[in-house]
Every structure is written in structure tokens, then in C-alpha cells.
């Protein structure tokens, strides 16, 4: 094996590892949200405001410790707008949507947005990647399909807005050369608007709910999103969208481990389909290449 081939393989393993850590962080956000909001420890909008504010403080603080300047406003429009739409839409939608319906709307909309972004940006999306996305999303349908209850139209729209927002936020990350600085700026600029919304919609809170929101913001959101911006330029839009389909599976597994939720044959089949779909889609040209 040549030195070039070894280097290419090492790069692929590193990218796969970093992407896996990022997906675990995303799933952690889901678990923390369920622990805090799902168990009634804190109002949803207050949770997301604290989450964004804590993420901003953690990232700006990390930048300050490194002696790095504020990244500024220039070029932040789509990232800030996408992040705000995602966090606010997600929080408000789950007031009336069950977890399964919400996740299907969210991840379906994310896929459409990111694959559309890939095509508009001239990124090659081979047939095998489309097939992989279809198989993986089919796995999510198996896991999360609602039991025949029609969702609230308004809240379904809010979740779709959240999905488009996250897709736009992710697409904006493909051109970032400094992941930490870009993420810190996005969180810092999005936080005031979300805090303002929380103040207009006052709700209940508890110390436990606040602690979970801060943990979600500072660690699994702030650092997790910075890592996401780190891997996005190498993944490309289509593979980045495909990788995110693993998040509900990881979150469901975490629910089994940490929240005492039941394991079922349905979960096993869904996990197998999602993993197979992601493998099909990302093995088209080797993981390190788009």
C-alpha cells in the first residue's frame, strides 16, 4: 500500500470518527431536551433561550481563552437565520407534536434542504447516495411512524421551518474556514432574539431544567455544532444530510440506556436499515471524498 493510500485511509477514518462524535452530540441534545422539557422541568422556549445563550458564552469564552478576536457580522446572515429558525421552530413545534411525528418531519425536511443545496451548488450526488438516503429514511419511518393520528397543522409547519433552518445552517457551514469562530458568532448573534422570544412567552422553570438547558447549550450544542462546522467542508451537503439520519437511532439507544425506555424488535429493524442506508450512501467513493 502506498503512502498516499495510507494517508487517504487515515483521513477517512478520522473524518468518520469526528462525524460519529458529532452525531452523538446531536443525539445528546435530543435526550437532554426530553429530560428537561418532556418531563416538565422547564418551559420549551426558555429551554432553547438558555441553550443558545449558554452555547454562546461557552464558545466566546473559549475564543477569549485562546486570545482570538470576535469573528464579526460579515457573512453570518444565513447561519444566524438558520440557527434561529431551527432552535425556535423545534422548541415551539414539540409543544403539540409527538416525538415520532416531529422527528420524521424534521429529518425529512433537512434531507430535502441539504440534497437541494448539494444540487444547486453543483455537488455530485451519485445514485447510490440517493438509494442510501431512501433506505435510511425508511428505517426512520419504521422507528418513528405515528400511530395514525394527524398532527397539528401549525406545529407541523413549525417543525418543517426548523428542518429548513437546520439545513440552511448546515449548508452555510460548508464554506467556513474557522469552525469555532463561525459557530461562536452564530450563537452570539442568535441568542438575543431567542432570549427576547422567551421573555415574550414566560413559562415555568426549575433548577434541574435550567441545568439541563445549560449543559445542552455549552456542550452538546456549542461544542457539538462547532465540530459539525469542522467536518462539513469535507463531508459535502449530501453526505452530511445522510449522516444525520443516524441521530434518532442514537437518541433512541440513549433513551434505553439513560431513561429506561424499552427495547423492541422495531427499534432493531430500524437501526439496521438506517445503518445500512448510511453505509450504502457514504461508501460510493470512499468516505474521505465527496
Q: What does this entry look like structurally?
A:
- With 290 residues, the protein is an all-alpha fold.
- Helix content is 77%, strand content 0%.
- The chain is built from 11 helices and no strands.
- It has helices spanning 3-38, 44-65, 77-93, 99-120, 127-144, 153-172, 179-200, 207-235, 237-243, 247-258, 265-282.
- The longest helix is centred in the first third of the chain and has 36 residues, at 3-38.
Low-confidence runs (pLDDT<50, min 5 residues)? 1-6, 284-290
Which descriptor suits the 3D outline? globular
β-strand amount: under 5%
Tally of strands: 0
Distance between the termini: 22 Å
Helix/strand order:
HHHHHHHHHHH
For the sheet with most strands, the description reads: none
Helix content: over 70%
Spatial extent as radius of gyration: 18 Å
Concise summary:
The protein is mainly α. 77% of the residues lie in helices and 0% in strands.
Describe the SSE topology.
Layout: H1 3-38, H2 44-65, H3 77-93, H4 99-120, H5 127-144, H6 153-172, H7 179-200, H8 207-235, H9 237-243, H10 247-258, H11 265-282
Task: Please describe the structure with a list of short key phrases separated by commas or semicolons.
290 residues; mainly alpha; 11 helices; 77% helix; 0% strand; disordered N terminus; disordered C terminus
